């Protein structure tokens, strides 16, 4: 029961698009909002591949959550990972980084924890083939891409050099397509004339996809255009193939006829699937909610969990009418959940209208001057698609400084093919191998 002194407590799990838009919708409400996230930043995932490929810096795609919400005086940010929900006691259990537990009581709970990379039951692939969902993933991929060229330069023989110069991407959705295009551009343009023993343009980029098309979600015409653009860039498409094994030296794939082929590749990147994080299963156990095959929570049309009107699920981790995992779905559902709580606080008794997603379309970047955009009947490709892509991403990027930085990064990359953000660290085990072939130098005095 609510008294007049303690404001209603709203706990939001996740500070991604859905969580942020829920918090923003509650900005002027007399409620105490707690945003819990296991990272201290809000991440613009659609530009992760640009950070991974060195066009944008990590600061341009990730903003401190506290800074983003600093004018929301009713919002407190908590750095912790939610591990369990006690639905009867209305309590979230969370783990702080480095140890220690926090308990967060709520009157309303908004779950916006997104999805994580799935390896379809082969978690052992993760050690050799990082996914791309977090900032750490993007920085790891950046390191692997640029390291591969360094290692190829000092490789002991041709066979080894070829392996370092072969990049395999698993998954032909937007992320796989974007990364494949970026690596070919790095090889063909960015690194031009930088190496002495190899020609980076000889790098092979292989893209493996289980279905018959890349970017299948964009429809056959755009998928066909995207495939042509990729092939024009020099990306080798392997459609209708399933990866059966990955190790440090390459991967094995099986085609539809059951034939298996081994490809040597020292860099394998995984963008093939997603699954719900463990907190979704904990919520399902606590509330009796159903989960779909990927672990998303099935919700009512008003985004509440069946039988629990105080718990709403939004964004990628919600399962409703087959809505796709897109930033716009997350923003609209987060804002809807925040507004529903606001209406309840204002004492509106009328049941809210069901959540209705307004489809604003989707876009995928292929390379400099090439993108595909689908917005209802409007289909754009090539340079016009690329211009539309630029405009959409600038409009949604959080913070003026990030936008300015992105415009600068894109201008440099477009005008000169160079990338401003190539700095990355190499691990101890890899650097000595590269050093061994260099000229002998005396130790510093
Ligand atoms: C590489 C990539 C490219 C993409 N490109 C596009 C695109 O071009 N267009 C488009 O529309 N969409 C794109 N998407 C999808 C889009 O980014 C997602 O749909 C959107 O981010 C979902 O928002 P969300 O808030 O539901 O989840 P997220 O943005 O994933 O946010 C979830 C948040 O919850 C936090 N979290 C997770 N578990 C816990 C826990 N247990 N406790 C506390 N915090 C937790 C995470 O740290 C994260 O901050 C892309 C996604 C990726 C990965």
UniProtKB/TrEMBL annotation:
Residue ranges of every copy of the FAD/NAD(P)-binding domain listed in the record: 9-334
GO molecular function list: NADH dehydrogenase (quinone) (non-electrogenic) activity
Protein name: NADH:ubiquinone reductase (non-electrogenic)
Reactions that this protein is recorded to catalyse: a quinone + NADH + H(+) = a quinol + NAD(+)
Short name of one Pfam family: Pyr_redox_2
Coiled-coil blocks: none
InterPro entries: FAD/NAD-bd_sf, FAD/NAD-binding_dom, NDH-2
Keyword annotations: FAD, Flavoprotein, Membrane, NAD, Oxidoreductase, Transmembrane, Transmembrane helix
Annotated TM spans: 380-400
Domain of life assignment: Bacteria
EC number: 1.6.5.9
Annotated family: Belongs to the NADH dehydrogenase family.
The organism of origin for this protein: Streptomyces sviceus (strain ATCC 29083 / DSM 924 / JCM 4929 / NBRC 13980 / NCIMB 11184 / NRRL 5439 / UC 5370)
